[in-house]
Amino acid sequence: MQITKENLTIIIVTIKSEKIIENCLNSIDPNIKKIIVENSSDEKFKNSIEKKFQNVKCYLTGKNLGMGSGNNFGLKKSTTDYVMILNPDTILKQNTLSEIFKISYNLDFAILSPISSDEKFPNFIKNKNNQQKIIHKDLFEVDRVDGYSMILNKSKFSNQFFDENIFMYLENDDLCLRMKKKNEKIYVYKKSIISHIGAKAVDEKYFEEVELSRNWHWNWSKFYFRKKHYGFFNAFFFNFPTFIKSTFKSIYYYLFNNRKKFKLYSCRASGFLNSFLNKESWYRPKFD
After folding, report:
1. Mean pLDDT value of segment 113-124
2. Ranges assigned E (strand) in the chain
3. Which residues contact 107 (CB under 8 A, 6 or more apart)?
4. pLDDT at 105
5. Segment 95-117 mean pLDDT
6. Mean pLDDT, the chain, integer
7. How far out from the chain centre does Cα 137 lie?
């Protein structure tokens, strides 16, 4: 089988992304189906996007589901054999997908990804100890790809996609690790290139709120991920030093009346503590 324009759907999860999403959509072939999952009730955003772009269906979730649940929402709405998970702060090159289409012919894979245009920030992790069979000089097997761009072969997942306990961070690592445990293949293709602006998916006026959310969820997800895959004690000993540092720094900044840093380190400590106590990933950024 082969990925084509007809059997591919691109899924983009958004929230307060109106200032960046159009650049992303303009870089995608208008003949390819696109599903936007907007984590709000913003009818204005939905109507504007669907009116301006072809083959776009925007769904409003009514609340902030996060990345994993948002992508699962889109996956359930898709009807094609393949889906491409894409962040709104990405830009496809003119041949990003055409190169993917060519290399995908009869390729056995669970996840296939373009390569980042920025060599300083690779979008994959490869275990150097693994010696994989060379299929193509520009195609190589990896252990993990970043979640901002990944094509999923839906037939490999048995409808078990992203872990919805994870609001954000490491949901892609979890997905990749589960696929590797099933001996499924994850590839990156060098001739298919994508640009990722990074940390621009949400309007910059919400920077402080988003930064607090990131710090909370990064520490929640780190403990949850390690506990899920490597056990409670591994997760505890790996993450506890960060919790101690964050706790002392939050006290320090509270005493010296530095509100921003106090809130930041409090979020780090709280994220770990909630995950440690087996509480759900409840923290949400506050948007107008």
Report:
1. 93
2. 8-14, 33-38, 56-60, 82-86, 90-92, 111-116, 124-125, 139-141, 144-145, 149-153, 186-196
3. 135, 139, 187
4. 94
5. 96
6. 93
7. 27
Query: Which residue carries 């037939």 as its tokens?
Result: 155
CATH class (in words) of the domain with range 8-196:
alpha beta
**Packing angle of the helix pair 207-230, 259-276 (nearest 10 deg):** 20
Helix (H, G, I), strand (E, B) or coil at 120: coil
Residues 6+ apart with CB under 8 A from 25: 34, 49, 53, 56
Separation CA 78–CA 8 (nearest Å): 9
As a residue count, the chain comes to 288
Q: Per residue in 76-99, pLDDT tens?
A: 999 999 999 999 999 999 999 999
Section 256-277 average pLDDT: 96
88/83 Cα distance (integer angstroms):
15
Query: Over the stretch 40-83, which tens digit does the pLDDT of each residue have?
Result: 999 999 999 999 999 999 999 999 999 999 999 999 999 999 99
Q: Report the alpha-carbon distance of residue 65 to residue 38 in Å, rounded.
A: 9
Residues 213-227, mean pLDDT to the nearest whole number: 97
The residue ranking higher by pLDDT, 20 or 223, is: 223
- According to DSSP, residue 244 is labeled H
CA dihedral 238, 272, 222, 24 (to 10 degrees): -150
Task: Tell me the C-alpha distance between 17 and 87, whole Å.
Answer: 10
List all residues 6 or more positions away from 45 whose beta carbon is below 8 Å from its beta carbon: 14, 18, 38, 58
Enumerate residues 6+ apart whose C-beta is below 8 A from 236: 223, 276
Question: Tokens 């959310």 identify what position?
Answer: 213
Measured between alpha carbons, how far is residue 207 from residues 7, 62, 201, 203 in Å?
37, 22, 11, 7
- pTM equals 0.92
